[in-house]
Design a protein that fits this description.
The protein has 258 residues and is mostly beta strands. It is built from three helices and 15 strands. Strands 2, 3, 4, 5, 6, 7, 9, 10, 11, 12, 13, 14 and 15 form a 13-stranded mixed beta sheet that branches. The site of zinc ion has 4 residues, from strand 7. Zinc ion is lined by residues 92, 94, 117, 200.
C-alpha cells in the first residue's frame, strides 16, 4: 500500500490493512458528547513545565507540521489524570481546507478548524518508542487544544511564521532558541475531557491518555491560511489531515468541569 495519508486511495478507511488495531475498541479521535460525559471531582489541574530548547526543529513530515526538540529536553507534564511524570516529545497540528472542518476530536458533533496535539511519554519508560509499545493507555499523555479563528496567537506566531520554510514534505528548519513553548498554553490547565484512546495516525497504538481542553485557543485567519499553504508528500495541500471520529464502545469520557 502506498504510504498512509488522507487521500481517497490511502486515507483512514484503508489504514486497517496495515494496522488492524484501526478497528479496535480504544481508538481516537472521538466525538465528545456532553450529554454522555461524567464529571470527576478527583481530576485536578495539570502542570506543564516547559524549559527553553537549545536545538529544536520544525518539520513537515508529509502528514503534519511538527515541533520536535532534541531528546531529553527536561520538559514535563504531571497532574490531572496522570499518575506519574510524562516527558515532552513533540507537538503538531491537524487542520482543514476551510473553517468548518479540521479538528480530530469533535464536541457534540462540532468540528473546529484545527487541533493542536502536545505529545508526552510516560517517564517510567526508557524512550518514547518504548512508551508507545508499553501496552495499556498510560504510555502517552496527549494534550489536545482546539483552534478557532480569531485574534492572532502571539505565542504560536514564531511557529506559524516558519511554515513557509517547511512548505514541502521532508523539509525542516531550526527553531530560534528563544521560542517560548510555555506561552502557548493557557495559564491554568483546567476544564478538560479525558479518556483512554489511541494515536490518530498509524500505527494507531492504543497507548494514549487523551486530555482535550474545552476552551479553544485562537489563531488569526492569516495563521490558518499559513497551515493551508502546506503541501503533503503527494504535492497536494495537507489540509484535511484529520481522522474521522471512532466508536466509543464501552469507554467513559470524564470531565474536570461540571
Ligand atoms: O494521534 B496523534 O496525531 O496525536 C498524538 C500522537 C502522538 C504520536 C503520533 N505518531 C507518531 S510519533 N508516530 C511515529 C512513531 C510511532 C510509533 C513509534 C515510533 C514513532 C501521532 C499522534
Ligand atoms: Zn495528532
Amino acid at each position: 500500500m502506498a504510504p498512509w495519508g488522507y487521500e481517497k486511495d490511502n486515507g483512514p478507511a484503508h489504514w486497517h490493512k496495515d494496522c488492524p488495531i484501526a478497528n479496535g475498541k480504544n481508538q481516537s479521535p472521538i466525538d465528545l458528547i456532553n450529554g454522555e460525559v461524567k464529571y470527576d471531582s478527583g481530576l485536578k489541574p495539570l502542570t506543564a513545565k516547559y524549559v527553553p530548547f537549545s536545538d529544536a526543529k520544525f518539520l513537515n513530515n508529509g502528514h503534519s507540521v511538527q515541533f520536535q526538540p532534541s531528546a531529553g529536553n527536561g520538559s514535563e507534564l504531571t497532574g490531572g489524570p496522570l499518575a506519574v511524570k510524562y516527558n515532552f516529545e513533540q507537538f503538531h497540528f491537524h487542520w482543514g481546507n476551510n473553517d468548518t472542518e479540521g479538528s480530530e476530536h469533535r464536541v457534540d458533533g462540532k468540528m473546529y478548524p484545527a487541533e493542536l496535539h502536545f505529545v508526552h511519554w510516560n517517564s517510567t519508560n526508557p524512550s518514547f518508542k518504548d512508551a508507545v509499545g508499553s501496552g495499556g493507555p498510560n504510555g502517552l499523555a496527549v494534550l489536545g487544544f482546539f483552534l478557532k479563528v480569531g485574534a492572532e496567537n502571539a505565542a504560536l506566531k514564531p511557529i506559524t511564521d516558519l511554515i513557509p520554510k517547511v512548505k514541502d514534505a521532508g523539509t525542516s528548519v531550526t527553531v530560534p532558541s528563544n521560542f517560548d513553548m510555555q506561552a502557548i498554553l493557557p495559564a491554568t490547565l483546567t476544564d478538560y475531557y479525558t479518556y483512554d484512546g489511541s494515536l490518530t495516525t498509524p500505527p494507531l497504538a492504543e497507548c494514549v491518555k487523551w486530555i482535550v481542553f474545552k476552551q479553544p485557543l485562537e489563531v488569526s485567519a492569516a495563521q490558518m491560511e499559513a497551515f493551508r499553504s502546506v503541501i503533503n508528500r503527494d504535492g497536494k495541500p495537507m489540509g484535511g489531515n484529520y481522522r474521522p471520529p471512532c466508536p466509543l464502545h464501552d469507554r467513559a469520557v470524564k470531565t474536570s468541569f461540571k
